[in-house]
Write a structure and sequence with these properties.
about 425 residues, mainly alpha, two-stranded antiparallel sheet, about 5% strand, elongated
Length: about 425
């Protein structure tokens, strides 16, 4: 056993990383280089040894230190959130329909308990080899949480589990920020969901952390969303006891943006409770909007079509892939579209065309078929195929699950600081 002085130890420490990362003859080169540097100073106890013995002594020191470093637990990078997604979660994303079928084959009474029981019962039947594959995929996703600059495809979940998870995450981040950084955090979120389509809102729990109120409690109507920055300025002043300077993303003082606010009409159509399908405005209501702005007509048509497309795919496709539909005949009954206009995004249609479409649908819903007068015949699935054979089954399921899907899910989230206006989604 050799005793190394401080100078020798410093020289050897500089070679540890190179030794760990090298293999074979490359590792021999690292050892030889370290010994050469030692020979430039006093060799101490190595002096009487032959060359080969010196190399062995250096190799043993480097190997011992390298093994100790490998055995040390890796320190968690400060400020990085831990990924928590599990193999069963990734599996569920691909088998949610199977779990639904198992859970609700005998009705939808007590849906949450039935879904939970069916989920774990189905997961237990998955072979261990397959479970290991799903666990590997989950580990890959957890690792992405720690990587900077990675382009991520957002996960697609039903509204309730998405909001539950988001609520827990935001609550933890809010506490951490107040304790360690002294800053209040309010989260703006936007997400596609399998049952409600695209949703957005504001969430915070600052009242629980000692603030005078939750900022999200101020946002109960669509009109308040249009003045969100003004409302936040007032809320921040109440918490901080004086008016705050507005900062840019890099922390430099700046004036609030004067960009024009985007029009937000909120919910424009009501939904039929029995089928979960949208109800077109009455003829009198449509006539009262004729002199209004074209953006409102675009919003009406888009809301009507998007809701029907969700029904066609049983919530799988939250928005219409317009470019994938070459003509109306490929996805909907010809009688449900006007022959003199192309099937395209409502923003590409003229105001008079939008008005005619709305009145055409209103006339159809006034007939014997009611809200079922208009429907898509198919939808484009994730592979880009026209999934017409699945439509009838999905449409029936959409109607059956309307009471569960459109119930009090959103209202139950009020305690988490969610705006009640989310019901419109």
């Amino acid at each position: 056993m050799f005793t190394w002085d401080d100078t020798q130890t410093t020289i050897l420490q500089a070679s540890v990383d190179k030794y760990i990362n090298a293999n074979g003859t490359a590792r021999d080169d690292v050892i030889a280089t370290a010994l050469n540097e030692l020979e430039q100073v006093q060799l101490g106890e190595l002096e009487p040894l032959p060359k080969e013995a010196r190399l062995q002594a250096v190799e043993k020191w480097l190997a011992d230190v390298s093994n100790k470093r490998k055995r040390q637990p890796k320190k968690r990078k400060r400020g990085v959130m831990m990924g928590t997604i599990r193999g069963t979660d990734v599996w569920l994303d691909k088998h949610r329909q199977e779990v639904y079928d198992n859970a609700y084959s005998e009705g939808t009474n007590d849906p949450l308990s039935k879904f939970t029981d069916a989920r774990w019962a189905t997961w237990r039947e998955v072979p261990q080899e397959e479970k290991a594959v799903w666990e590997g995929k989950a580990e890959e996703l957890r690792n992405l949480v720690h990587k900077e600059g990675v382009k991520i495809t957002p996960r697609l979940l039903p509204l309730e589990p998405m909001m539950n998870s988001l609520g827990r995450l935001c609550r933890s981040v809010e506490r951490k920020s107040l304790i360690e950084d002294g800053a209040y955090i309010v989260t703006l979120y936007a997400a596609n969901t399998t049952d409600k389509g695209p949703v957005m809102g504001v969430i915070d729990h600052n009242l629980d952390h000692g603030a005078t109120s939750n900022f999200s409690s101020l946002l109960k109507t669509a009109e308040n969303y249009n003045s969100i920055w003004t409302l936040f300025d007032g809320w921040a002043k109440e918490q901080l006891q004086r008016k705050a300077d507005v900062l840019q993303s890099r922390g430099k003082p700046d004036k609030p943006s004067k960009a024009q606010k985007k029009t937000d009409f909120g919910p424009l159509l009501s939904v039929d409770e029995e089928t979960g399908l949208p109800i077109m405005l009455s003829e009198a209501e449509l006539d009262s909007l004729v002199a209004g702005m074209v953006q409102k007509w675009i919003a009406i048509v888009r809301e009507f079509l998007t809701h029907h497309y969700l029904a066609a795919s049983n919530g799988k496709v939250p928005r219409i892939p317009w470019k994938a539909h070459a003509s109306p005949a490929s996805c909907l009954d010809a009688s449900m579209w006007l022959n003199d206009m192309a099937f395209q995004d409502p923003s590409h249609l003229k105001k008079e065309q939008l008005i005619r479409l709305c009145k055409h649908w209103r006339e159809g819903q006034d007939g014997p078929d009611g809200v079922k007068a208009f429907k898509f015949r198919s939808y484009v699935n994730g592979d880009g195929d026209d999934a017409c054979e699945e439509y009838e089954a999905y449409f029936e399921r959409w109607q059956e699950e309307a009471p569960v899907r459109d119930g009090s899910i959103v209202n139950s989230q009020e305690g988490n600081g969610l705006p009640g206006s989310l019901e419109r989604w």
